[in-house]
Structure formats: C-alpha cells, structure tokens
Amino acid sequence: MLKSARKQEKDPEGRMPLADHLRELRNRLAKAMLAIMVGAIVGAMYYQDIINLLTDPIQQSVGCTKPFTELAKQSDGACGNITMSGLMGPFTLMIKVSLTAGVVGASPVWLYQLWAFVAPGLHRSEKKYAMAFVAAGFPLFMAGAWFSYHVLPTAANVLLDFTPDHAVNLLPLDDLLDLVTRMVIVFGLSFELPLLLVMLNLTGVIAGRRMLGWWRGMILGVTIFAAFATPTVDPVSMLSLAAPIVVLYFLAVGFSIMNDRRKQRREAMGPADDEASELDLTPEDIGEVETVSAMRTVPEQSDSAHDRANGYDDVT
Q1: Is residue 268 predicted with pLDDT exceeding 60?
Q2: Angstrom distance (rounded) from CA 30 to CA 85
C-alpha cells in the first residue's frame, strides 16, 4: 500500500524533495557499484583470456621468439620480451584488469542508472537529443577503440626499430596494459568530436558555414592534439589519430550544412496547415499620454439653468 501510494504521489515532471533526490542517488549508485563488482568477479574468472586479448597484437608484432638472455634482434628486426616485476606485481595486475573489465562490462547498467537519474529533469526535446547522442556516441567510441587496437602494433614496430644493436627490450606487462588502455580512451573520445559539432549545429549554436571556415585551424589543432594526446611519440600513431578525426570533421560539416539548408527551406515555406504561426509580440507606441487621458475624460457639466431640465442636466 505504501509503495503504491508513493507511486501515485510522484510528480509527473520528476520533481521531488532534496531528501528523495539523495535517496534515489544512493540507490542508483548502489545498483551501479553492485553491477561493477559482479563484472569484476567475472573479469577475474577470465583474467588470462583478457590478458591474451590485450597483449596478442603486441606479442605477434614485436614479441621475441628467443629468451631475453640472447640477442634482441630477430630475422625480422627488433623485438621485446613482456615481463613482470615484483612479487605483488601479478596480483596487483589481476585486480586492475578485473576492475577495468567490470567497469566496461557493467557499462550498460551504470549508464542506464545515470540516465534514469537525470532523465526526469529533462524536457522531451532534450531527452530526444540525449538519446541520439548516446546512440551515435557509442559506435563512434567503439570505432576509435578498434582503430587504436590495430594501430598500436604498427606504432610498436616503429618505436622498437630505434633499438641499438645488442640491446634487450623489456616490456613490463602493467605498463603495456596502461598504454593500451590510454590509447583506447584517447582514440575513443577523440572520435566524439564530430558528434559534438553536430549536436551544437542541431541546437542552433553553430552554423555549418561557420564550421567550414574553421577547416585550416581545425586541421592544425587536430594535428597538435594528436601529437600530445597519443601516449607514444611516433608519427604513425599521431597521423593515425589525426586523419580519421579530420575526415569525421568534414562529414560533420557536410551534415551541418545540409541541416541548415533544410531549416531555411522550412522557414521559407512558412508554417504547415496544422501549425500556428508565430505571434508578433513587439510592443507598439499608442500615442501621447494626453491623448489617452483626453479620451477618458467625462464631458463637462453645465451650470446654466437653460441647459437643465427639471433640475437635471443633459449628461444625467
């Protein structure tokens, strides 16, 4: 009975007291943390498979087939040996990989909890834009992650080619996983830039022609960003990050220009038959104050006996 009464008392616009907001935030955070912990436990069960998935591209690209006590040069060039350091290193790495897998695996749950907490305070149009942003942003992030996953082996080959003769390359596994994680995050977030421009255009903040005028500065800015954002310092990773972002930028500009033209055609056609035209609420001058006051004055009464009949004047 109490639960049904609470449901009936809910405001249709999502308004509630501060205590109820805090209680709802606590419940949703608890559900999100529980989902992350369950994902972390599952990640710990598949810890070795996750390690192999993340290290196989590097191992196949620059992994040494000989022990590190021998020469570090193979027939196909320089190589590196993946190593672990310290007694607690493997356990710490397992915890880190499991928690990361839990956050990634439970992302649908905690993203839904975040959306369910924020959505009641949004208007219908804002909800529509937010859903479109998430629907387009997730594939773009995954495309950036996939791109970085396949670029890293090439970048590793370029970097290891600078190895001096008779030198041994040791690749600590924890540093290697941190590098892979940073590249996935940087590439994934960088692929969201065109989506941000499109959203600004849809909300009327930036016009497509204006974005097109930025193309020189945008290319320079993306190149500089790629030089500082990529964890590696090789030109292969930098160009691999900058090139797709520039392509996506021009695609966003093209979409924005077409959207602006569609808006202009709609405005030129005027409102549809089932739409109300816009009202002109601009205030207008109605004349001097004296004119208005003169219109409201009552005719003067006459005091002469000729204008009175039976003691009453004409006005009465």
Answers
A1: yes
A2: 36
